[in-house]
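#help-structures

NK: newbie question. if I give both the sequence and a SMILES, will the prediction place the ligand too? trying with coenzyme A
OV: yes, paste both and it writes out the complex. here, I ran yours:
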Amino acid sequence: MLALRFVRRVAAEVRRDVAAARGRDPAARGVTAPEILATWPGVHALLAHRVCHALASAGVPMLPRAIAAISRSITGIEIHPAAKIGDRFFIDHGSGVVIGETAEIGDDVTIYQGVTLGGTGFATGKRHPTVENNVTIGSGANLLGPITVGHGSKIGAGSVVIHDVPPNSTVVGNPGHPVRVEGRRVEGPDADWVHLPDPIADAIKVLASRIAALERAIEEREQRAAVAPLRRPPAAHEPAPAAHGEQNIRVNQSLGPNPAGG
Ligand SMILES: CC(C)(COP(=O)(O)OP(=O)(O)OC[C@H]1O[C@@H](n2cnc3c(N)ncnc32)[C@H](O)[C@@H]1OP(=O)(O)O)[C@@H](O)C(=O)NCCC(=O)NCCS
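OV: that's the protein plus ligand as C-alpha cells.
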C-alpha cells in the first residue's frame, strides 16, 4: 500500500515535470511525453535530482553524490543533492547549469543553460540563492550568495546578481539592476542600467570618423597633385605654395579631436 502510494506520487511528479517542459519549451510543442522523457537533458537532470534528494534526505551515504555525478557527466547539469527544488521546475538546454547545496527553488521556475546559483566564497551555512515561484533566469546568469529572487521576477541573460531581487521585477546587467519593478520602468537619475555608456565603442566611432576625414584629405591632395603639372608656374610676385608642414597642420585642424589625446 505504501509502495503503491509512493509509485503514484513519483508518477505524478514525472508527469508534472514533463508537462512543464512541454509548456515552457517552444521546441517541445507537439513532442510526445515519452520522447521528452527520453531526450530532454533538463528533465533527466531533474528526475535524477529528485532521486538524489530523496536518498540524501533519508541519510543514505555516497549514493546520492554518485548519482548526481553520473547525471552531471551525461547532462552537463550539476545539482547538489541537498538543493531544494519545487514542482514544475524546467531547465532548458541545460549545459553548464550549477545549483549549489543550499539553493532553494520554488514552483514553476525556468532556467536556461549556463545559469549558476552559487556561493560568493568559502562561507558556510546558507550561502546560495533562494528563488521564489514563477521566476525565469536567462542563459549565463550568475546569482551569487544567499540572496532572494522575489516571485514572478525575470533575470536577464548574462546578468550577475548579488543583491535581493524584488518580486515581479526584471533585473539585467553586471552588476544586476532592476529595470522594471511591478511591470513599471524604474524611475530616477541612476535608473537607466540598460543604456550605459560604452567608452570603447565611443573611441572606435571617433577613430572611424578621423580615418574617413584623413581619407578625404588624402584624396583631395592626390586630386590637386594630379592637376598641378597642368597649372602654369607662379609668377615672381605670387606667394609660394604652402610647405608640406603647413598643409599637415591644416589637415589636422579639420579632423577634430584625437581620441588618443594626440
Ligand atoms: C530579461 C528578459 C527575461 C526580458 O524581460 P522583460 O521583463 O520582458 O523585459 P524587457 O524585454 O521589456 O526588457 C527591459 C529592458 O531590459 C533590456 N534587456 C532585456 N534583456 C536584457 C539582457 N539580457 N541584458 C541587458 N539588457 C536587457 C531591454 O533592452 C529593455 O530595455 P528598454 O527598457 O530600453 O526597452 C529577457 O530579455 C532575457 O534575457 N531572457 C532570457 C532568454 C534566454 O536566456 N534565452 C536563451 C534561449 S536559448
